[in-house]
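Aim 2 progress update. The chain analyzed this quarter is reproduced below.
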Amino acid sequence: MSLDATRAALHPHESRQRLEHARATRLAQLQALNETGQTAEDHLLSVQKAAIQRVLKEIDHAFARLQDGTYGTCLGCAKPIPAERLEILPYTGHCVSCQRRTAS
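Predicted structure tokens:
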């Protein structure tokens, strides 16, 4: 899929909506965890909060890429990220191949 095809498949407005939904969902999850009444020393709670905060940072970076026109382009190989991947993970900055390499 060409870069133009990826961008056409995910209109910036749709991408922004997906990112806003992802952010709102994570903020609601974080609020729910804060309202559980469990202490911050609870290991599982700490891990969950850290994971949500990490995703929130990724969402912020995705908003910045959307703003500067690089959204939808892999940060690893500079090829287009498939529209299907962006629909599932709107905040991803990597194609599947590059994500696997960074996870290793």
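The helical segments are 3-9, 12-34, 43-68, 83-88, 96-103. The CA atoms of residues 73 and 80 lie 5 Å apart. These observations will guide the mutagenesis experiments scheduled for the next reporting period.
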